[in-house]
Amino acid sequence: MITFRPIEFNDCAFLNEIRNECAAEYLHNSSTYPLEQTQKWFHTLDVPYYTVFNDNDKIGYFRLSNYSKIHRNIYIGMDLHKDFRGKGLAYESYCRFIPFLIKQYNLHKISLEVLVSNQRAYNLYLKLGFVHEGAKRQEVNKHETYIDSVVMSILKSEVLNNKIYEFV
Questions:
Q1: Cross-strand pairs, 112
Q2: What is the pLDDT of residues 106-160, one digit of tens each?
Q3: Is 54 in contact with 89 (CB distance < 8 Å)?
Q4: CA 19, CA 151: separation in Å to the nearest integer?
Q5: CB-hemisphere CA count at 13 Å for 34?
Q6: Distance separating alpha carbons of residues 133 and 69, to the nearest angstrom
Q7: Which residues pair with residue 63 across a beta bridge?
Q8: Other residues' Cβ atoms within 10 Å of the Cβ of residue 41
Q9: Which residues have a Cβ under 8 Å from the Cβ of 137 and sit 6 or more positions away?
Q10: Around 154, how many Cα atoms within 13 Å sit in the side-chain half-sphere?
Q11: Is the torsion defined by CA of 124, 130, 135, 141 positive or negative?
């Protein structure tokens, strides 16, 4: 069963491992960081990240950013440990986390950006009901190739009307 909780300081090594492994291919920022820098970063968070568990296994984390209480929106992303990819766990995690997020932050809209080269993630977001809003053309340089960043979002009303989401 998928569960989550706000990250704790002792999760920093886990986050660092996943983030550094995902950076080159999946993330907008390809930089990698030493653990000490991740630990310093932890103390600067204004919106928490959430560690994701499948039963007792840590499988990944949700990233949150650009939270606006006034506009009731936030950006989301998820990084999954390589040992847990391709098993439907990201889909299940989003189905449980998005309703929690809407309720916790009283959100109207959840947005994200995904690299056009990450077709697997793009298809996941479509399956979750996210809508393609547009693309930032040639936004990211990966391996000397410029890649578009696709902007997607889902509204609270769309989540409420979609039976895949689990409201607790």
A1: 152
A2: 999 999 999 999 999 999 999 999 999 999 999 999 989 999 999 999 999 999 9
A3: yes
A4: 21
A5: 2
A6: 22
A7: 77
A8: 14
A9: 148
A10: 23
A11: negative
